[in-house]
């Protein structure tokens, strides 16, 4: 492999933002037909490096070579013209436009007199969509698609170009397993065509499944490159965060208190049916299942975002009706949502104000908000969650993806809820911070909080939960204690197999 000229090379790239040296002399290369992982903690500089490559940021120092030739990426269209295609961590689609318009934005096929050639546009788009085996077509309006499908539109856009290198920045964060399989096939195809692929992800199992080499950044500096087949998770983790991690199961059992929340025979249209469970103070209950099993919808019901069609919700033994999130918050329920971008953050607002947003009324001293109290809350959670930012004045939109998520988590933790619901709490979070968040969840339970954790990652559920509830197609199939659960019986349960059926 080493005798090939790299498809692409970055040399000694420096990029600074006010108060931040995001990249401190980083070199990186990708060979034709290679899948090269870029790893590092949240805020290490991965997305920034790729934005330099994609013409979104200009570097302060350093140079970029495509093949042997030094180039300047003046802007994203220029980078695209030079064969660099970028699939972003944050979706960058125009929601009111159709799939076809988004894919060919700025490059719509035209007839004479400059009129858009809709027929060609739609035909070309449908051809690409067919490769991706998606369930929508060229004329679908992007805003009506799920986040996962919007991600597929981004990928489709990449396939329209004669690419030298394709950058995937956390592409699987919101994909289902089936969609992931399609994505990995697309990557295989590109690889066969000799395209260099840069793959950013925090998910070790993916990295080890599809990449050839792994380069690691730490605090804006290049730390080294490993050959995937010759290394292991522990070595990569060491290089990323400077220590190993304990990834064992949850063995600690906090003293359980009274039942904080009980759900009896709850149903909500077709979304879920006849669901009953309880969560005690001091208990972490993990909800495991496939995407679409109904877990998020149950959480949304408990947070007052959906009205149940049948059944009861009891808080501290008393039946409640929750008509809005305000009702839920007033009753001590917090939800860290799955879609943090849409529901969790105001990107144009600073870090402190985002974190204290639901509490501004409580923090008021006379007509004014007590600024000192707000800053104190921010400081406390910045330290606990290790949020990397030069200060509370930084706009949330300028934080790295993972650090944005930590702001949302801090926001809901600082409300001291009775019931804390977290939906996919560590999506996009690096391995080190992930284990910190798991510890934090355990600590919260030890302090007497009831915690509901929804996760699609089995190691996460096994790691944090006292009890695990398995759901399948809107039904609660089985509830396990952490002593009786095994990976096998958990997989069976989320595939809809009940223990009695197995025996039969
Ligand atoms: N436009 C910007 N203005 C100010 N600071 C920025 C900007 N973009 C990035 N940064 C800072 O640069 C550093 C690197 O951020 P970057 O987004 O590259 O991290 P990352 O490695 O992609 O992390 P993650 O895994 O969380 O996505 C962070 O400290 C971030 O806050
Ligand atoms: Mg990033």
TrEMBL record:
Entries under Gene3D superfamilies matching the protein: P-loop containing nucleotide triphosphate hydrolases
One GO cellular component term noted in the UniProt record for this chain: plasma membrane
Domain ABC transporter, first and last residues per copy: 8-244, 254-498
Protein name in UniProt: Sugar ABC transporter ATP-binding protein
Subcellular location: Cell membrane
CDD domains on file: ABC_Carb_Monos_I, ABC_Carb_Monos_II
PANTHER family: CARBOHYDRATE TRANSPORT ATP-BINDING PROTEIN MG119-RELATED (PTHR43790), D-ALLOSE IMPORT ATP-BINDING PROTEIN ALSA-RELATED (PTHR43790:SF3)
Natural source organism: Rhodosalinus halophilus
An example molecular function term from Gene Ontology annotations: ATP hydrolysis activity
Membrane topology annotation: Peripheral membrane protein
PROSITE patterns: ABC_TRANSPORTER_1, ABC_TRANSPORTER_2
Keywords annotated in UniProt: ATP-binding, Cell membrane, Membrane, Nucleotide-binding, Repeat, Sugar transport, Translocase, Transport
Tree of life domain: Bacteria
